[in-house]
Amino acid sequence: MSTQFEPAPTKRVEVITWYLEMLQPRELRTVACPRADVRVERAAITSPELNRFLYTAVGGHWYWLDRLTWDYARWLEYLDRATVETMVMHVLGTPAGYIELEAQPDDNIEVAYFGLLPQFTGQRLGGYLLSVGVARAWAKGARRVWVHTCNLDGPAALANYQARGFRVYDQRTQWQDLPITSPGPWPGAGVGGETRH
């Protein structure tokens, strides 16, 4: 006897993706660190567990779905390369956000992933973390730093990139079938609870 599972309900959504770039280090408009208890460090030890935690904690509410199916070996294969670097922001010792840089051909560096955990948004921490990450990309010898974001990301994402000096060079629209609700960092996370800090 075979058991069939009903597919999860989906909705069809128009997704607008913006591609942005910065071509000179002088174009970076930095934000000063907004508080004294913030620390940004490179995660020098490859850790699929850490990166998966950051990916789901930051992106779970914004339909970051691409890597949810990755197993440990796939995470390790991706992260254990000299071309990938993860920088983690801590506030009072608590992980608050991250930026993942990936070096690509022709000295391009992509801001592959970037964002904050929900309880740390709205405090100018995102502007500071992005400033640190992009400065790091230029220090690594980038000829061009680029990123893409879409209308499914946090409402301040596009404005933050532009405020730091990125310029839109392309825009694309497509329709996607997505789950009715975003997956969150884990099933049921944030439902009926309060954020404390």
What does this structure look like?
With 197 residues, the protein is α+β, with helices and mostly antiparallel strands. It has a single domain (10-179), classed as Gcn5-related N-acetyltransferase (GNAT) (Aminopeptidase, 3-Layer(aba) Sandwich). The chain contains four helices and seven strands; from the N terminus they run ββααβββαβαβ. The chain has helices at 48-59, 72-79, 125-139, 157-163; strands at 10-22, 38-42, 84-91, 94-104, 108-116, 144-150, 167-179. Strands 2-3-4-5-6-1-7 form a seven-stranded mixed β-sheet, sandwiched between helices.
Q: Notable features of this structure?
A:
single chain; Aminopeptidase; globular; disordered C terminus
Number of discrete helical segments: 4
Distance between the ends: 50 Å
Main-sheet strand order equals 2-3-4-5-6-1-7
CATH names the topology as Aminopeptidase
Oligomer: single chain
Spatial shape: globular
Tally the structural domains. Answer: 1
CATH superfamily: Gcn5-related N-acetyltransferase (GNAT)
- Mind telling me the CATH class? Alpha Beta
